[in-house]
Amino acid sequence: MQTKLAKLGRSTLVAFAMMGATSAFAEEVSLMKGVIPREGDDRMTTADQFKKPGPWKIGMSHFGLSNTWTIQMAHDAEFEAKNNPNITDFLFRNADLNQTKQVADIEDLIAQGVDAIIITPLTPTSADAGIKKAVAAGIPVIVHTGLTDTEEYTVDIQGGGNYFGRVMGDFLVKQLGGKGNIWVLRGVPSHPEDINRYQGLVDAIKGTDIKIVSEDYGTWEYDGGKKLCEAFYLSNPDVQGIWSSGADMARACVDVFNQYGAEMPPISGEGNNGFFKFWRDNKLTSIAPEYGPEQGAAGVRAAVALLEGKPLHKRYVYNPEPITAETRDTYIREDLSDAYWFPTALSEEKKQEYYGLKK
Amino acid sequence: MAMLSALLPAPRNSRAGPWYLVLACLVVVVAVVSWSAPLFLTPGNLSNVAAQITPLVITAIGQTLVIITGGLDLSVGSLISLTTAIIVLDLPGWAMVLLAIAAAVTVGTVNGVGIAYLNVHPIIMTLASMSVVQGVALITRPVPGGTVPGWISGAVNESLFGLPAALVWIAVAIILAAFLIYRTRFGLHLFAIGGNPNSALMNGVRVRRNIVLTYILSSLFAMGAGFFLAGRIASGDANVGTVFGLDSITAVALGGTSLSGGVGSLVGTVLGSVLVGVIGNGMNLMNVSAFLQIVIKGALLLAVVSVQRRKQIGL
Questions:
Q1: Are both A56-159+292-320 and A161-287 of the same fold?
Q2: Is A104 on the interface with B (CB under 8 A)?
Q3: Which of A273, A347, B17, B131 has its CA 20 to 30 A from that of A149?
Q4: Is the torsion defined by CA of B268, B272, B273, B278 positive or negative?
């Protein structure tokens, strides 16, 4: 009898546990395709912890509108906010790649009494102090597209820089059969994202016979990338592969090879319409890790979820499968300009408004 | 009282420059911002503004000394970055302070000697040293981070007699500079050198030595700004000072100091720095579009500087 009772008790407990799990699963908020809770970190906000009746005033401190990707990420965030009837004010601040301005912007947003703050840190130093002040003021903080040293934020969504770099490094190792010379086009000196992406490359080529023969910073810009590749081509033309830290440098490097009439070695790229057309038209051997500007919208979705009282994980990762030559053409939009990046939350109307090519 | 009258020179004092124009501009901007965003005048926000402008005020004061002699110091931004990188080194407090002072004195001396004794143009000289110092800062602190000693964070973020610590930093910098400019022979010589270095030399002024001293002082003020900034961001960052090179020149120019030397005032520089800070804070509070903010800042700078008709000394 006791055994039967014990079995019944266990079954009941299991049933309740399953119901709980189902309930938690049902409440899981989808921030963006490819964004999942970070493995090994089960910290969550509690239900209703930040719940607040609308309308809401949401602030965003953006590290700087420095290239087409960062601008589209801002557009994605603004579009998502404008389409939520509960968000009446979306206070967007551009730090203009200036650490001290970002500190000031966050202070100003706190002073304006926002209900939630989204921060894309320029450097950990420019965001940490602001995050601590905001959290102390009871404001939930969502961090994405940049790293912090503090863990005091409420929610963190990060595309893994290390993963990004390793995907491109693994691609080169495979293409080169584990042996050869490569050039490395880095982003901005001391930028955490660049350091992490580079570390991913170092991890990928460790133990192989791949040698970095030229390496320098192109600041993630077309112009910077072109200058580097011109200099590298003159100093070290014997190259079998090129690793680019992303943004607009790969396209510039292809232009340099075309200028010299040289055969283009395998090169890593990024999820940009211009690069994808270039990749197809120049028959490049390439790969593109996905790093979508939709992360801007994901930050707004996280802020909304918190203010609606939904529980969120403290840390999310964004490590989607890379885009390869097989899947590339499904992304290309002939009717949109080279400055268009994917994936995005923008509506078709907005895509045409910002990136539509004149007929 | 005498110091105060020196800080607020008469509008007709041609050696002080048209500092009253930036004051008028500041009054208008404050009135507009206060009317549009009542939050502006709250103690919390004013405390934010004070902390936001402090590094610029300190750097611009040092820059003023150099510009009055007819020079220019572009290396101050890199030196600020290097100072923050030194502060987070794993060293005893006294050693870290000595190293930061040594770095500032070295950079200032190299700039001064290059300009005064080797006749290198100030822009070229300080551009070169800016690059070298930036590189050293990146080597010292390749990744932003580290731990700032508690006494520095406390000196920046705490309050004194109910006032934000930032105001104390600004007051100390102003008093030091006011003493140097208005109460010493060195200060008088700065204007003489900027007005006409040959005349100054013929009148017994040790032009080269004073120029070297001026660049050392500019570096030391930048170092002070670096200490404040490190405390504010609670870490070292090899790029954090980058903007202060041009921003400090902008603040000095807004304050009516002539970029060709010989004319300038401390009060103008302080007001110019405050104007830059208030515009940034005010536009944020008024929810001015991020894109439009850049346009307005540039247009305002152009307008204020354009109406400052330069005069020859004595006219």
A1: yes
A2: yes
A3: B131
A4: positive
How many DSSP H helices and E strands does chain B contain?
14, 2
Write the DSSP assignment of A291-344 as a string of letters. Answer: --TTHHHHHHHHHHHHHTT---BSEEEE-PPPB-TTTGGGT--TTB-TT-BSS-
Residue count of chain A, please give it.
Answer: 359
Say if CB A123 and CB B144 are below 8 A apart: yes
Picking from B179, B195, B174, B186, the residue whose alpha carbon sits closest to that of residue B271 is B174
Q: What single DSSP character describes residue B145?
A: B
Q: With contact defined as beta carbons under 8 Å apart, do B40 and B183 qualify?
A: no
Q: Are strands A267-268 and A87-94 parallel, antiparallel or unpaired?
A: unpaired
The three-state secondary structure class of A240 is coil
Backbone angles phi, psi at A142, to 5 degrees: -110, 130
Q: Which residues pair with A268 in a beta bridge?
A: A287
**Domain spans of chain A?**
56-159+292-320, 161-287
Distance from CA of B164 to the nearest CA of A (A): 15
Nearest to B248 by CA among B122, B115, B77: B77
Tens digit of pLDDT for each residue in A152-184? 999 999 887 889 999 999 999 999 999 999 999
List CB contacts (< 8 A) between A99 and chain B. 233, 237, 239-240
Q: At what angle do helices A99-111 and B43-68 cross, to 10 degrees?
A: 150
Calpha distance A319→A341 (Å, rounded): 17
Q: Chain A 159-218, CB below 8 Å of chain B: which residues? A: 189-190, 192, 195
Q: Count CB atoms within 10 A of the CB of residue A21.
A: 10
Which tokens is A82 given? Answer: 């404008």
Shortest CA distance to A308 belongs to which of A40, A19, A70, A58? A58
Residue A126 has pLDDT above 90, yes or no: no
On chain A, the residues whose CB falls within 8 A of the CB of B242 are 98
- β-partners of residue B160 are B163
CATH numeric code, A56-159+292-320: 3.40.50.2300
On whether ipTM exceeds 0.90, the answer is: no
Q: Among A259, A241, A250, which residue's Cα sits nearest to residue A222?
A: A250
- Tell me the chain A residues in contact with residue B240 when contact means C-beta distances shorter than 8 Å: 99-100, 123, 125-126
List CB contacts of A321: < 8 A, sequence separation 6 or more: A290
Side-chain-side CA neighbours of residue A54 (13 Å): 12
Phi/psi at A283 (5° precision): 50, 45
Lowest mean pLDDT among A23-37, A55-69, A221-235, B244-258: A23-37
Tokens of residue B13, six digits: 């004092």
Question: Do you know the residue count of chain B?
Answer: 315
Given a cut of 80, is residue A232 above it in pLDDT?
yes
Q: Tokens in use for B108? A: 């200032």
Bridge partners for A116 per DSSP: A58
3-state SS, residue B177:
helix
Q: Which residues of B touch A198 (CB under 8 A)?
A: none
- Domains, chain B, in order of start with CATH, read 51-306 (1.10.3470)
Q: How far is A231 from chain B (nearest CA, A)?
A: 20
Contact indicator for A225, A256 with CB cutoff of 8 Å? no
Distance CA B223, CA B237 (A): 14
User: The tokens of B87 are what?
Assistant: 């502060």
